[in-house]
């Protein structure tokens, strides 16, 4: 800085010295030339000998010399030819910058006598500079959706040349989004602004590359270019989108926890946070939340609870996706549950007659039941059967309703009770079966008469027997039960001789014991027959008969036996008729028995 100032003040001194010189010489005129810049060194600027009408031969003798006012020696004097020639190429822009008029000034000094000539060469501009931008590339960050006509001023290009050789115009490579508006400043210099013509869409084109060209007005014209890179900034102008509006999937019931059901997928065309999406359940019932879970980041839906087809065969699940800007969309996941054969058929008894009379006719309904299976399809289709060694059959009335009916005549005396096994099977894989046992009892019907253990009985008796003597027992059995099997014995009416049986013989109605009531005499009657009947307690009662033949055997006479009253009240001896008799060997019983048989 100090050096510059010193320089300038010396120049001023020199100048004032010349001015004094000019004044003292009385003839100090400025001789003007003009030439374009950029002439090669050695080029002739002017011939001063000729122009100043000086003798070339004397120039050296007079110590002719050139004194430049500028620090740089652009020109020099050839003393032999008197020509001022270019020593160093002159750049107008170097010498004068942006000044409109540019002069190279120097003096020619001669001695003996001292003469001073002031010379001025106007340096004309040549279009030797191209417009130039400060950078090769300018970057603009412009948000999408900015309104059209938005403007972006551009940096000016520089061209050191002046006037028409300076920058005259700007242009931009053709594109659909931007135009260029070229404007002039007060001083006439030009500048340009980018004008948005069509809205930007980052999702369509995230970056634009334009070429900006600045041109000067020289001949030939020179241009300079720079790239304009437009980075389009994202705006949350896109909703997240599911790849499908409905996802339909099948899921086996009883699928274990964490089984992948499906994966929903959404995308968002925006960028960064605007494209960060998370998934969540939309409006779904609580039950769905207990059965399924959703990964908010991956969109994977997995099994959480126990999936039961019998509970629900289908679920419709609304899924929401949200981007970082709060935009949401929805999709639906339809989960169809596939049935698994996990339920056995169930037998439900509607009515049961657990006891039926043994004489029930075939087709009598014993039980009514239904068979159901909670599964569906083949898994829920049932078959029903009973074991085949029983006199019962199944009749299907309505679908899945059955009647258990008797098939053959029944006999309680042979089989008093049946355990009927109902087997219900479904057609799933594997087959599931359930079994139900129905117990059916047969109630007794009086269909069996009492039967004597012998078809006829013979009972022996010694004559002169004591009255009330037990001579034998008849026995009849009845296959029925209870009252129907309760046998009572009786003797059919008849006579022994003139007397009725009842006066001589007695049968205990309950146990069939046969008593002789009177003492009998062999000499009068050797045998007789009584028909006994066994009847049961049925209604009506059934009975059968047998013959009891009483044979009287001979014996030495004995004194007649006197029957004392018996203590035993249950004895049929109550029926005995006490009879007083002498203990006389010769006395004879006057009873005569005649059989008064029914046959
Ligand atoms: C039937 O089943 C019952 C109970 O299990 C049993 O007590 C009875 O003896 C069975 N009857 C037949 C005839 O199998
Ligand atoms: C029949 O029953 C009577 C009385 O119980 C008995 O004394 C007799 O021996 C029986 N007869 C036969 C053939 O079993
Ligand atoms: C009464 O008679 C029955 C049979 O008829 C017999 O078992 C019982 O011992 C007798 N009792 C007396 C006290 O004689």
TrEMBL record:
UniProt keyword list: Calcium, Cell adhesion, Glycoprotein, Membrane, Repeat, Signal, Transmembrane, Transmembrane helix
Compartmental location: Membrane
Lineage top rank: taxon: Eukaryota
Name of the protein in its database record: Cadherin domain-containing protein
Keyword Calcium: yes
CDD domains membership: Cadherin_repeat
Sequence ranges of Polar residues compositional bias: 588-599
Region (Disordered): 571-599
Protein function: Potential calcium-dependent cell-adhesion protein. May be involved in the establishment and maintenance of specific neuronal connections in the brain.
Coiled-coil spans in chain: none
Residue ranges occupied by any Cadherin domain in the UniProt entry: 27-133, 134-242, 243-347, 348-452, 453-562
MF GO annotations: calcium ion binding
Membrane topology qualifier: Single-pass membrane protein
GO annotation (BP), single: homophilic cell adhesion via plasma membrane adhesion molecules
Keyword Membrane on entry: yes
UniProt organism field: Gopherus agassizii (Agassiz's desert tortoise)
Listed GO CC annotations: plasma membrane
N-terminal signal peptide: 1-28
PROSITE patterns reported in the protein's UniProt record: CADHERIN_1 (PS00232), CADHERIN_2 (PS50268)
Main location: membrane
């Amino acid at each position: 800085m100090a050096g510059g100032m010193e320089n300038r003040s010396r120049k001023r001194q020199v100048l004032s010295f010349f001015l004094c010189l000019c004044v003292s010489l009385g003839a100090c005129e400025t001789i003007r030339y003009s030439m374009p810049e950029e002439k090669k060194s050695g080029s002739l600027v002017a011939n001063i000998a000729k122009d100043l009408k000086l003798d070339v031969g004397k120039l050296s003798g007079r110590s002719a010399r050139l004194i430049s006012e500028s620090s740089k020696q652009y020109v020099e004097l050839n003393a032999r030819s008197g020509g001022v020639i270019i020593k160093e190429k002159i750049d107008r822009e170097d010498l004068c910058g942006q000044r409109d008029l540019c002069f190279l000034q120097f003096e020619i000094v001669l001695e003996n006598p001292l003469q001073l000539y002031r010379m001025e060469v106007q340096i004309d501009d040549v279009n030797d500079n191209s417009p130039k931008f400060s950078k090769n590339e300018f970057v603009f960050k412009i948000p999408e959706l900015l309104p059209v006509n938005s403007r972006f001023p551009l940096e000016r290009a520089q061209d050191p040349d002046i006037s028409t050789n300076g920058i005259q115009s700007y242009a931009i490579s053709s594109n659909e989004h931007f135009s260029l508006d070229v404007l002039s400043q007060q001083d006439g210099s030009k500048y340009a602004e980018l004008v948005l013509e069509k809205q930007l869409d980052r999702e369509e084109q995230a970056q634009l590359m334009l070429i900006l060209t600045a041109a000067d007005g020289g001949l030939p014209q020179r241009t300079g270019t720079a790239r304009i890179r437009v980075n389009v900034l994202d705006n949350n102008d896109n909703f997240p989108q599911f790849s499908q509006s409905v996802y339909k999937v099948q899921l086996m019931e009883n699928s274990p926890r964490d089984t992948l059901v499906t994966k929903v997928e959404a995308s968002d065309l925006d960028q960064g946070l605007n494209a960060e999406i998370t998934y969540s359940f939309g409006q779904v019932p609580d039950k769905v939340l207990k059965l399924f879970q959703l990964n908010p980041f991956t969109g994977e839906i997995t099994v959480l609870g126990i999936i039961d087809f019998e509970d629900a065969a289908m679920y419709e699940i609304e899924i929401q996706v949200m981007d970082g800007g709060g935009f949401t969309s929805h999709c639906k996941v339809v989960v169809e549950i596939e049935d698994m054969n996990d339920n056995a058929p169930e037998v439900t008894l509607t009515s049961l007659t657990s006891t039926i009379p043994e004489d029930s006719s075939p087709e009598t309904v014993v039980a009514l039941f239904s068979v159901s299976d909670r599964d569906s399809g083949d898994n829920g289709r049932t078959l029903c059967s009973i074991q085949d060694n029983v006199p019962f059959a199944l009749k299907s009335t309505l679908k899945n309703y059955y009647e258990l009916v008797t098939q053959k005549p029944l006999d309680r005396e042979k089989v008093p009770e049946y355990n009927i096994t109902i087997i219900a099977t479904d057609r799933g894989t594997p087959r599931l079966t359930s079994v139900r046992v129905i117990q059916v009892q047969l109630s007794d019907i009086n269909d069996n008469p009492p039967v004597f253990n012998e078809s006829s009985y013979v009972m022996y008796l010694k004559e002169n027997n004591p009255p009330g003597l037990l001579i034998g027992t008849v026995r009849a059995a009845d296959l029925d039960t209870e009252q129907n099997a309760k046998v009572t014995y009786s003797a059919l009416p008849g006579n022994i001789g003139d007397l009725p049986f009842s006066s001589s013989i007695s049968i205990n109605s309950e146990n069939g014991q046969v008593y002789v009531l009177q003492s009998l005499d062999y000499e009068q009657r050797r045998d007789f027959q009584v028909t006994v009947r066994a009847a049961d307690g049925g209604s009506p009662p059934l009975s059968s008969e047998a013959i009891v033949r009483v044979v009287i055997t001979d014996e030495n006479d004995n004194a007649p036996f006197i029957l004392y009253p018996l203590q035993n009240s249950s004895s049929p001896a109550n029926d005995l008729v006490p009879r007083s008799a002498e203990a006389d060997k010769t006395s004879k019983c006057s009873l005569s028995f005649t059989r008064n048989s029914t046959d």
